[in-house]
Every structure is written in C-alpha cells, then in structure tokens.
Write a structure and sequence with these properties.
The structure is a homodimer.
Chain A (H helix, E strand, L loop, with lengths): L8 H19 L6 H8 L13 H24 L5 H18 L1 H9 L6 H27 L8 H13 L13 H16 L2
Chain A binds a DNA duplex through loops.
Chain lengths: 196, 196
DNA sequence: GATAAAAACGATCATACGTTCGTTTCCTGA
DNA sequence: TCAGGAAACGAACGTATGATCGTTTTTATC
C-alpha cells in the first residue's frame, strides 16, 4: 500500500495538530509517543514525517501558534476601549474567555515550556512577556491616574494573571458555574483588589 | 566492587529524594531517566532499587510527603487564631511562605499529577481537596458573618489559591522583591477582593 | 495524457529506557 | 567474632522510542 485516496496535506496536518494537542494535554509531551499520535490520526508512524519536522517542532508550532493568536486577539479586543478601569475589565473578560475556549493550548503553553529547546523556549517566553506587558500597561496607567493603588506593577500583574489563568486547570464548560458568573466573580476580585 | 564504605540506607534514600526532586522539577518526571538520577546521586542505576520500589513510587512518595506536610503545617499555623479576617491573613502568609520555601515540591505536586497512576493521583487529589477546604471554611465563615462578600465560595477559593500559588513559577528569593513585600501585596489583593 | 510532486506504507536502525539479577563487599547486632 | 542483612556493582533483558528510507500509489500541473 501507499498513498491513500482523498489524502491531502493541510487536512492531515490539521488532524495531527488536533490529535497532538489532545494527547499532549492529556498525557504530556514526553509521555506521548509518535506511534500513539500516528494511531490517533490513522497513519503509520513514519508518515507523520511528511507533515512535521520533528516531535519537538510539533510542540513548538502548537505553542507558538497559540501565543501569536493570543497576542493578536487581546490587541483586537482592547482596541478603542478608553480608560484604565474599562480596559482592565475588558482584559479580564477576554482573558477568561480565551482561556476557557483554548484551555488545552494554554495549559500546554505553560506546562510544556520546559520540554522546549532553549532556543524555542526563549522565543515563547518573549511572546508571553509581551502579553504580560499588555496588562502591566493598563495597571501602570491606572496607577498614574490614581484610579488603582498598586505597589508593584509587575508582581501585581503576575498575581492577577495567575489567578485568571487558574481556571484552565479546573473549569468545565458543562459544570455548575456559568461563564458569565465566572467572569463577574473574577472581575470583582480584580477590580476590588486594585481599587484605590 | 560492591558495597561502598560509609554507605547507609537512610542517607542514600535522602540523597535520591533530593536529587529526584531537583531533576523532576527541572526536566520533568517523564524526561528524567533513572540513569541520570543515579549519576547525580553517585550510584549505578540498578542500585537505586535498594531504596525505591519503582520510578513511579519515587514520584508518589515525593508528592505525598509534601501534601502531608502542607496539611499538618497549615493546621498548626491556624491553630488558635480567631476571626475570619485574621485567619485569612494567616492563611495567605503561611501559603506564600510555604510555597516560596518548597516551590519545587509544590510545582511537581501539580505539574506531575498526570504522571501518577490513577490510584496514586486519586489519593493526592483528596489531600489537595482537604487543603482547599481549609480556605473554603475560612471564606464561608467570613461570609456568614458578613465580613466577606463572596458569590461562590469554591470558585473564589480556587481563584485565590491560583493567585497565591502562582509565585512558584517565577519567585526568586534572591530577586528584586522581598518576601515581606510579596506577602503584603498579596494580602491586600486578597482582603480587598473579598471585602464586604 | 504525461510527469513530477505529494502522501502514504512498512520495514528498519540505533539508542535509551526501566528493571532484574547474581555477586561482592561492608556494616551491624547478638 | 561472626553471621546475616544491607548496599553497592556491573552486566544484561526486553521493550519502546524517534527517526530514516526505499517504494508505491494518488494527486496536481502543464
């Protein structure tokens, strides 16, 4: 046997990415074997290499794509919103929404950082830093206008991001808590926490 | 060659645990090979099995020990402290202190949960749940006395724990931010966040 | 319709892994 | 003091892994 009918490059790659995302999220990058991945996609192990460079590149591409999308979306979301308080609320809502929607990517993006090549890791950390800066900017401007009371912008940003990102580890869209309630609750915690 | 001079069981086991902790924290459980671990301790790979059952048991023992200590300490810390507000402050301070001091254990305790056998994982999750309950109790009592305003106790507890645990991923004891400042900043975020 | 590229197969390679085992040496307690 | 357990060695086992390669069939291009 050989090339199967109906096979197409982009479609197979998409399937590999989706299956890889799921497997890495579930069992972890190191624990995922390419044989497992291939089986899930419906390929022989060797055939994966028609679409990916290496296992490492698969991981990097997944995380990198996620970070680029995250940055683009947050900028689009904040576009045109005026005032630190409104911008902070918008940031919280966006962050939670995105992290609910793409919890697998987000989880992998932090849990598997150490599975990346130093060079790859550096690149991802830089993108993450850029995202953190979006929040830092908002906090800084709010503090300058005496709207927020913030001791240390960077540390506060880390604390808030940790809180908002935490939902990835437990949130279940089909669970007891609605998306709306989740956003309200976190928004209150954040706004009250930084209020002057 | 064979048994080396001065070797003793407990000492070697302690060395294995310390090296294992460090390796798992650095490269992850799956990525750590027992050969690497043995080399770090100064043993041949096979000799590890004089002290551990399996690689899996090594991981479980590390995490389990950490959880037991965590629970014992938080109870000791809260003992005799009256009033939800004071108890919450004490909880925050303790949590941060412990998570600074044992950041490797804490990190592994969450990041490597998925590397545990289902049975092992269940046991750890139960202990974690017990720890979460300590915070939930405080929040519940504070809400009952109208000292705190809390929509959903469990979700709020998760949010706060995520925030407070986040420091494990970035805090550097030799860095710019002092332990004192860190505690003050987080205490304020928490207390303002839940204030009625 | 011919030709080149794409996408799959299946076999295989070299290596690394967790674990076992027989043996040897050291330590400890009666 | 000496017997028996403890703690190490070093070799080995069986398996799984990431990756490569030659081949074959399908798809796409001119």
């Amino acid at each position: 046997m050989s090339r199967t009918r109906g096979s197409s490059g982009p479609k197979t790659l998409a399937a590999i990415n989706e299956a890889g995302l799921d497997l890495i999220y579930t069992v972890g990058y190191e624990a995922m074997s390419l044989r497992e991945l291939a089986a899930k996609v419906g390929l022989q192990p060797g055939s994966l290499y028609n679409h990916i460079e290496t296992k490492q590149d698969l991981l990097f591409d997944l995380i990198h794509n996620h970070m680029v999308v995250l940055l683009a979306r947050v900028d689009a979301e904040l576009e045109g919103i005026e005032g630190p308080a409104e911008r902070l609320k918008a940031f919280v809502a966006f962050h939670l929404d995105y992290h609910i929607e793409r919890k697998r990517e987000v989880f992998i993006g932090s849990a598997e950082l150490r599975s990346l090549t130093p060079k790859h890791r550096k690149e991802i950390v830089a993108l993450r830093r850029a995202y953190e800066d979006r929040l830092c900017d908002i906090l800084k401007k709010g503090a300058a206008k005496k709207l927020f009371r913030i001791d240390d912008v960077r540390v506060t940003a880390y604390a808030l991001l940790a809180m908002l990102t935490g939902i990835c580890t437990w949130y279940d869209p089909k669970g007891r808590v609605s998306r709306r309630k989740l956003i309200d609750l976190h928004t209150r915690l954040v706004m009250e926490g930084v209020a002057a």
